[in-house]
Structures are given as structure tokens and as C-alpha cells.
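Support reply, case 0932

Customer input (verbatim):
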Amino acid sequence: MRISKMWKAIVAAAAAGTGSLSVAVTDDVVTAAEGWAAGLAVLAALGFTWAVPNRQALEDS
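Our regenerated output:
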């Protein structure tokens, strides 16, 4: 199964964003700092995941 670099990054960003926002919503208020933290988590996940190459498939001999 081949997963493109784009979809890998999108899934990682979505996971980072929802994880960060789920922690921020525990007190029923999302402050500006928590919003910035969620945004930075999304950007960091996009960048780092995009930078890491997918593992090459092994060739059948």
C-alpha cells in the first residue's frame, strides 16, 4: 500500500491539531495562547512529516 507524502502530512497535522485542541477545550474556553499552540502544532506536524521520506518498498527477488 502506497501512502503519498501529502496524505501522510495531512493526517499528522489533523492528529496534532485535534489533540492540542482537545486539551485546550477541557476548561470550556480556548484562549489565544491555546489557539496559537494548536496552530503551531499543526504547522510543525506538517513540516516535519513532509520532510521525512517514506520508506522504500522492498523489491521482490
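We compared this against your earlier run and they match. Two observations from our side: The radius of gyration is 16 Å. The CA atoms of residues 25 and 34 lie 9 Å apart. Please reopen the case if you see a mismatch on your end.
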